[in-house]
Amino acid sequence: MLLLTFVVLLAGCNRPHEEIVLRQIRDVVVDANSEPMLRANAIFFNPNKVRGKLKRINVDIYINGKKSARVDQKLRTEIPAQKEFSVPLEVKLAIKELGFMDTLLGMIGGKKLEVRYQGYLKLTYHGFPIRVPVDYTDNIRISF
Length: 144
Prior knowledge:
Number of helices: 3
Low-confidence stretches: 2-12
Radius of gyration: 19 Å
Strand content: over 45%
Helix content: 10-25%
Largest sheet: 4 strands, antiparallel
Order of helices and strands: HEEEEEHHEE
């Protein structure tokens, strides 16, 4: 009887049916100093009628096909139901991987870069952990 009650309660929980979607990376700024940083706002959309919490972002960043950074942030961000939400990102770029001279010349010339974000998000809905894949590509222009 106790097992049956638990199963009925678990089935009745409003678990999300659709995945959260990374819609856009906005306000991308690359600070070109001795330790270059990429700052941006990731815009997500939760299509579900259930609120949740974003617990972790684990995303690799590739610039022009080369792994240049990793976002590994622990968070406690509330995810609203059926709405967009924003998550600030701040990442140290690995200039050695990109090639210092190419990057410097690209900044002077206002070069466009292809930036790919690939990894996953860890969320919880009513205490249940969920992993949501992220695979998003954008082109940005960097300059001084």
